[in-house]
Amino acid sequence: MTDIARMAEVDISTVSRALANSPRVTEETKERIRRIVEETGYVVNHGARMLRSRSSNQILVLLGNIAATTFPEVVLGIEEAVQEHGYSVLVGSTHNDPERQEILANQLLTGAADGIILMTGLLPEVVRNFPNYEQHVVAVTRMVPDKRIPQVNIDNRAAMETAVAHLLALGHSRIVHLSGPLDSPTFQARAEGYRRAMRSAGAHPAVIPSQAFNIQAGIEAMERLLALPDRPTAIICASDEMAMGAISLATGKGIRVPDDMSFVGFDDIPFSVVMNPPLSTIHIPRRDMGRAGGRILLRNLTEGAGKAENVVLRHELIVRGSCGRLSRSR
Amino acid sequence: MTDIARMAEVDISTVSRALANSPRVTEETKERIRRIVEETGYVVNHGARMLRSRSSNQILVLLGNIAATTFPEVVLGIEEAVQEHGYSVLVGSTHNDPERQEILANQLLTGAADGIILMTGLLPEVVRNFPNYEQHVVAVTRMVPDKRIPQVNIDNRAAMETAVAHLLALGHSRIVHLSGPLDSPTFQARAEGYRRAMRSAGAHPAVIPSQAFNIQAGIEAMERLLALPDRPTAIICASDEMAMGAISLATGKGIRVPDDMSFVGFDDIPFSVVMNPPLSTIHIPRRDMGRAGGRILLRNLTEGAGKAENVVLRHELIVRGSCGRLSRSR
DNA sequence: TTGAAAGCGCTACCAC
DNA sequence: GTGGTAGCGCTTTCAA
Fold first, then answer.
1. Is the same domain home to B276 and B165?
2. pLDDT value of residue A329
3. In CATH, what number is assigned to the domain containing residue A105?
4. Chain B partners of A111 at a C-beta cutoff of 8 Å?
5. Is the CB of A40 under 7 A from strand D?
6. What is the pLDDT of residues A202-253, one digit of tens each?
7. Structural domains of chain A, count
8. What is the distance between the alpha carbons of residues A180 and A240, in angstroms, rounded to a whole number?
9. Measured CA B87 to C1' C8 distance, in angstroms
10. DSSP 3-state of A101
11. Is B46 in Cβ contact with A50 (below 8 Å)?
12. pLDDT at A46 over 60
């Protein structure tokens, strides 16, 4: 920057102001400086700027597993909200390991990130010790048990009730739920919504939990289910990936979908459309959730945190081909 | 850090050395300092460290679209290779927009990242002007037309030849290729491998290109194909996502897979196992590619770039259920 | 083995 | 509107 200043025959402070587009520099001077910057290919040093201005213009997104198909589109939404304000997005995969999450979250403390968007459902210990942490953290997609942190989510309970209602309307009553990890409030909420809806319909709830919510988990849960007596006529899965695993196993065992068994997924990932049969599922507005989360974080970062905002977006049942009407003859 | 120094009753420089685990500090002193750091929850300031040491310990991964299912697992591999050496990984989605890529790549110039792993097949202009850029860049998954940059990839041409050979062996000869964007060397190579294999078998190659390689692209390409006279008996897709789109469209039109038409995918994403029928495809070692790329970048960062290394990993044909034997009666 | 001190490149405050 | 300048928090060289 000193070089630029010399070349432009102004003081270094003027260059700094010009580059920050301060109104206290003539348009003329700015133009001259901009030209020189252009010519020399100069870029400001991120470290120095961070050191001085105590901000990195980086947002850290923490998620359990970057390979879970449901997350990337949320990230896309966050990027959209955040980029035009000069922030860039950094994604960290915690592999559901609290320790890894702590390490990654340290980026906030060291100043490498100005804010964190949590999609893990876990508030890192180190963050809780950060002054005004509620100003720097937003939970998206996965709730965090902390009233001070703004949250963006859908109503998982209600979504499951929607799913159960759909199956009920088709004449099913022996419906089981293939759940995700029940230490996660998200999957707890889904299981609870399922139970509540079943009970109020006078049906008997049955939940088969898993440690994960990917394809493999769906396969294994389905294996366990099929080993049981008294096969259900319909299944609600905690994620589309699980549903796909479960359906593939069932199909492999000669079970016809939806004739013999109906399936509902959760997430509406792009692949659910091209399944055979196409998967009926609960759509969640991932992109919008990301955008909302990004917006809130940005606002809190610049204006300070007010009362923690709690955004609940709408889910939607997408009826495709994986659910059949139950004939009374059964 | 000054506080820590005061509390430990040593000089700030000693604290710095202790934290860097320099051998020039007594184990005793180190221990005392470590304890105080622990108690106070102190973390070094990332900006200041960057400013002084001119390194950020961050690796930037640039990819076209974070939502393309094939990429995340490569990122996982990179993380594996890089994390234990104290680097963290930053993912940037360019949306295949060269301009966005330039903006993201600036992170290298500003010092926010020490190195870049390119999965876009495009070398950013700004990087080319960076001194010793070949030391800071590795191309993974997508080749870059620059001999100075190390590359990690599979042999896309050979992989397609494998795919064609498989179909040939099943009796097919009217095989068309649903290609991805042909401005990408990767998809060019795949198309070329296909053409070469077809020609040397005395068969007539036919390529239908697309602007993308996602599900939608597969659907649209298949639509175009089916509008043509003279339907092929087998189709090789440039990606699994395309194959899934194409199969779903074909199935919707009453074409039976694999009885009426065979399909081969490319990538072996997790979903290909649970398709109905399960997708025969070319497996590419994404995790390994990521790891290799991360390792090379790290080495170049620390030891300087030697001759650009060119790693070619092995692909593998995975035979599942989407290809049928062509009966001679046809 | 430890201390002192010089900056890294920038921003922001204060003067003019 | 512009210039001068202190200092952000750290690393590293030099001296002791």
1. yes
2. 46
3. 3.40.50.2300
4. 45-47
5. no
6. 999 999 999 999 999 999 999 999 999 989 999 999 999 999 999 999 999 9
7. 3
8. 11
9. 21
10. helix
11. yes
12. yes
